[in-house]
Amino acid sequence: MSKIVRFSVSLERDLLKRFQRYCREERFATRSEAIRQLIHDSLARRAWIEDADDVAGTLTLVYDHHRSQLRDQLMKLQHDHHDLVISVVHAHLTHDLCLEVILLRGPARQLREIAARLRGLKGVHKGELVIGTVPHDESRK
Question: Are residues 73 and 123 in contact, defined by beta-carbon separation less than 8 angstroms?
């Protein structure tokens, strides 16, 4: 666990009020927790844009499992990219619809590519990729 460091931030009064409302609405325990989350989100977006070599994420798909050959195509793409796919959770939403959450880890560019290919298959109703950076172990440096 990293050592906690305190620092101060200066904000305009109206920005602070909006931030406090955000903290309440999102149910953060403290403003520090909210700031930590915002920093993590910002750094993850930056790593994503900069094509970081090691990111993790989830690809959530909702699809019609009755669609001809869709299950086979999903399985083939996942097997073809077994080095990126960590795990898969599958759930039946209705008689026709399935939810699949695919855990991914690898280079940002490759995760974007596999996500685009999976989302683009006929019969996929919804596909959303959520990413996060993989923190580097500072003690190893």
Answer: no
Q: How far apart are CA 111 and CA 107, in angstroms?
A: 6
Token reading at 127: 């596909």
- The backbone region for 27, taken as left when phi is positive above 0, alpha when psi lies in -120 to 50, beta otherwise, is left
What's phi and psi for 26, nearest 5 deg? -90, 0
pLDDT per position as a tens digit, 57-113: 999 999 998 988 999 999 999 999 999 999 999 999 999 999 999 999 999 899 999
d(CA 116, CA 40): 24
What DSSP string describes the chain? -PPP--------HHHHHHHHHHHHHTT-SSHHHHHHHHHHHHHHHHHHHTT-S-EEEEEEEEEETTSTTHHHHHHHHHHHTTTTEEEEEEEE-SSSEEEEEEEEEE-HHHHHHHHHHHHTSTTEEEEEEEEEE----GGG-
Report pTM: 0.70
Amino acid at 71: R
- pLDDT recorded at residue 88: 96
